[in-house]
Amino acid sequence: MANDAARLTTTEFAVLGLLSFRERSGYDLARAAARSIGYMWAPSRSQIYKVLPRLVGWGLADVREVAQERRPDKAVYRISGSGLQALASWVEEVDENPAGGIGVFMLKLFFGGVADPEAVGAQLEAYRGFVRRRLAAYEEMERNVPDDEPLHSRIMLQHGIARARATLEWAEYARRALAAESAAAPQEDA
Amino acid sequence: MANDAARLTTTEFAVLGLLSFRERSGYDLARAAARSIGYMWAPSRSQIYKVLPRLVGWGLADVREVAQERRPDKAVYRISGSGLQALASWVEEVDENPAGGIGVFMLKLFFGGVADPEAVGAQLEAYRGFVRRRLAAYEEMERNVPDDEPLHSRIMLQHGIARARATLEWAEYARRALAAESAAAPQEDA
DNA sequence: CTGTACATGTAAGTAGTTACATGATTGG
DNA sequence: CCAATCATGTAACTACTTACATGTACAG
Known about the structure:
- 2 copies of one chain form a homodimer.
- By secondary structure, the first copy, chain A, is mostly helical.
- Chain A is 63% helix and 7% strand.
- Chain A binds chain B through residues 21-22, 36, 39-40, 106, 109-113, 120, 134, 148-153, 155-156, 158-160, 162-163, 165-167, 169-170, 173-174, 177-178, 181, and chain B through 21-22, 36, 39-40, 106, 109-113, 120, 134, 148-153, 155-156, 158-160, 162-163, 165-167, 169-170, 173-174, 177-178, 181.
């Protein structure tokens, strides 16, 4: 407590998100981060060890000491109720233009399982809008190519355009996949 | 001097790279950064103001005071010979697995104009390999989907796959475009 | 008369990094 | 026997951020 969930850093939310899948030790968490969200967010091991006690102090996670025989003893962290709530409200909070860039959208969608499906849909819509605006900006630049802008920058412009278009196509697929899921399990608590 | 070019930060190389296009003031540079390389690298204005005198101190850039009548006077920065050399050798230096991730490849290719075309080709090859490895890792993950990995993470896996494939297609186009340029201007100093 | 663009910087703070320290167990 | 895996942390550092400070000129 004494802390506003909106104040957590992206790294803290990312760790919280990984804990929402299952409980883990710091070491384990570092490996999981490198594997799953490593391509969007890759905190160092030492940073994770700093973040974990902080989350516990705020009541967002709990620790449990686990004694092991052939391995060093370890501290296993589990997300708490208020941690789950904080994560969900972060995932549901739509920022049309996040300072952290695309990675924030990706993380929020990655951890979408803890949030309301409709809110996740809105998040995806926001991401789509973000990429669409970016694509429009690229295409605008492409139209008025300044003569002093060399070949290489034009090639990199193509790179951005190609990725943006691919992302928009993917977003269409993602929208359908999420809709299909909602249809299959309309009200999970009904 | 007294400085190894390999020690410059990515931000410093990025600023140097923008200066390689044309001379600029700090203010101007900040806007240019937001416009052109802003989607790969976006340093704050105050950071640019810190970097510029450092570059001058190392002999990589020169300053010139420009008095203006209707606007505040300004300091205009221009890349020096050794700055151009430092930039070129950074662009040509191939790191198969850069710590800074994809953004480093993009910047190096963006500033490829200052370097040897063959080295730029090698850089593109390295980038292609990087993305190919990443795509292979994604596809591997997709094949052995763990049951506890929720729908959302699978969707984000698709996102990564879509972008990687688009990037590889772009790389093929980029390779041809660079080859065509080399063929058109075989030896610029011959 | 208010806001934006031009123009340059400082000051304070922080999130993150690498390197170091320790130590048991296991596999090649 | 050497390297890797498991396991946790500290210490030192740094690149970068936001907010502040200052001032002119011009457009609406």
